Amino acid sequence: MVERQYPIGTPGQPWGPAEKLEWQQAQQLKRSYFEDVVPAINALHEGFDVEQYGLLEYPANNYPLFVVKTRHWQSDKPTVLITGGVHGYETSGVHGALRFLETHAEHYSQWFNLVVAPCLSPWGYETINRWNPHAIDPNRSFKAPSPAAECANIMDYLGQQQWQFLAHFDLHETTDTDNSEFRPAKAALDGTVNTNWNIPDGFYTVGNSEIPTPEFQRAIIDSVRKVTHIAPADDEGKIIGAELQQEGVIHYAGRELGLCMGLTDAPYVTTTEVYPDSANATPEQCILAQVAAIVGGLDYLRDQA
Question: Which cofactors go with this protein (predicted)?
Answer without folding.
Answer: Zn(2+)
